Amino acid sequence: EVHLMESGGGSVQSGGSLTLSCDASGDIDGGLCVGWFRQYPGKDRREAIANIDYDGRISYADSVQGRFAMSRQHPKKMSLSMNNLKPEDTALYYCAIGRHRRGCENWGLIAVWGQGTQVTVTS
Question: Mean per-residue pLDDT for 14-26?
Fold first, then answer.
């Protein structure tokens, strides 16, 4: 069974930076897509913010393009560097592994979720 664990969340002032890490355990298929999502307080849906396809192609949501950078150091480790953080980035952040080689921008195609890590940006 695959498990994901996020770390690195916290509280930071507007304009600051944080780096989130995600470590996986279990039998990982390195050919599946991976991604980061966030969920706002009181909202049911999780917003896709960055994902990496099986071929290494990285995509970002418009809201974080140019400020966030996702990388995958190893099939069992990925990270999300967040710069120039804004109060609207405040959310619970999740890493995820998809069911297929592509499609990790679609929360309905996610196979495994982490437990989430809180990011709070104060003005």
Answer: 97
